[in-house]
């Protein structure tokens, strides 16, 4: 059971840049998200070809988590994520594949991503996590809900650290703000401090 | 492609295999793998290209969409999708487009 929790580390992915704890770790002038994520992921040299088969939302989530969790312990790590568009980006692609009767070729590889929380599953698979996870769909990051649920996970002993945050993507617009809540650190895990991450 | 010993048949089969490799790379998002990296007899699953069960379903869709072949029995896939050689042979025999 964790008595006092802290926001140990933060990773922000937006505007073609990956920033970890306010330090730019990767940036690229590539026009599309597709080119950006490939280069940003390869920067860490992970041997994980499955990354390139994921839908865009999962790529964003896994990419941000890769930078956030670099060098960190994965023990009892739970996930609490949220976004605004759910899996709409992939839903639209799936819909296009089944729109016309004569050209009805739904892609199994696309269809399996037509749920928002699949991106949490991809993070779990990538890091071998078999822990609690939750995904909320909300207009903005549900700070109070995420804070309360994270505190519950830590204080009930269901997790000893929690990867939390926002992974929003639709078409070419994307933003990930992930933070690691653990017993380590100096910035207290409070609603106010979470709010500051999104300022 | 009715005469297996005919030189034209062999050329057409070679072209079909190259085309098939390209389509598989594209459809399955096989990053960092080029047509030249895939040998005709390489196993597609397991030790070869390392494809998974979702990839198998994607190959079934590819057969339908590109070659007009509907695999009604998924068990057929095990023998058809062994390698590029076996896929190309099945397509050559059964394609409707």
UniProtKB/TrEMBL annotation, chain A:
Domain of life of the source: Bacteria
GO molecular function, one term: acyltransferase activity
Record-linked InterPro entries: Thiolase-like
Full protein name: 3-oxoacyl-ACP synthase
Organism: Sphingobacterium paludis
Lineage, broadest ranks: Bacteria, Pseudomonadati, Bacteroidota, Sphingobacteriia, Sphingobacteriales
TrEMBL record, chain B:
Residues annotated as domain Carrier: 14-95
Record-linked PROSITE patterns: CARRIER, PHOSPHOPANTETHEINE
Alphabetic keyword roster: Phosphopantetheine, Phosphoprotein
Pfam families: PP-binding (PF00550)
Matches recorded under Gene3D superfamilies: ACP-like (1.10.1200.10)
InterPro entries named among the record's database cross-references: ACP-like_sf (IPR036736), PP-bd_ACP (IPR009081), Ppantetheine_attach_site (IPR006162)
Name assigned to this protein: Acyl carrier protein
Species the sequence originates in: Sphingobacterium paludis
Lineage, broadest ranks: Bacteria, Pseudomonadati, Bacteroidota, Sphingobacteriia, Sphingobacteriales
């Amino acid at each position: 059971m964790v008595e006092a929790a802290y926001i140990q580390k933060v990773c922000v992915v937006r505007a073609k840049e990956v920033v970890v704890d306010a330090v730019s770790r990767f940036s690229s002038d590539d026009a599309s998200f597709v080119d950006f994520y490939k280069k940003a992921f390869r920067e860490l040299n992970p041997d994980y070809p499955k990354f390139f088969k994921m839908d865009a939302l999962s790529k964003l989530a896994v990419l941000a988590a890769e930078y956030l969790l670099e060098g960190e312990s994965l023990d009892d790590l739970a996930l609490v994520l949220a976004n605004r568009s759910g899996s709409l980006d992939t839903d639209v692609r799936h819909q296009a594949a089944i729109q016309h009767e004569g050209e009805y070729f739904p892609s199994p590889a696309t269809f399996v991503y037509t749920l928002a929380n699949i991106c949490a599953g991809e993070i779990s698979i990538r890091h071998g996590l078999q822990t609690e996870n939750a995904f909320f769909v909300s207009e903005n990051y549900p700070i109070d809900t995420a804070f309360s649920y994270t505190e519950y996970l830590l204080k009930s002993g269901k997790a000893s650290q929690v990867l939390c945050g926002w992974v929003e993507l639709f078409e070419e617009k994307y933003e990930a703000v992930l933070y690691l809540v653990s017993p380590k650190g100096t910035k207290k895990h409070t609603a106010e401090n979470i709010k500051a991450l999104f300022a | 492609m009715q005469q297996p010993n005919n030189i034209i048949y062999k050329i057409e089969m070679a072209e079909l295999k190259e085309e098939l490799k390209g389509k598989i790379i594209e459809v399955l998002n096989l990053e960092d793998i080029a047509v030249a990296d895939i040998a005709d007899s390489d196993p597609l699953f397991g030790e070869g290209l390392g494809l998974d069960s979702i990839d198998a379903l994607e190959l079934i869709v590819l057969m339908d969409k590109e070659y007009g072949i509907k695999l009604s029995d998924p068990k057929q896939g095990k023998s058809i999708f062994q390698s590029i050689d076996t896929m190309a042979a099945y397509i050559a025999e059964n394609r409707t487009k």
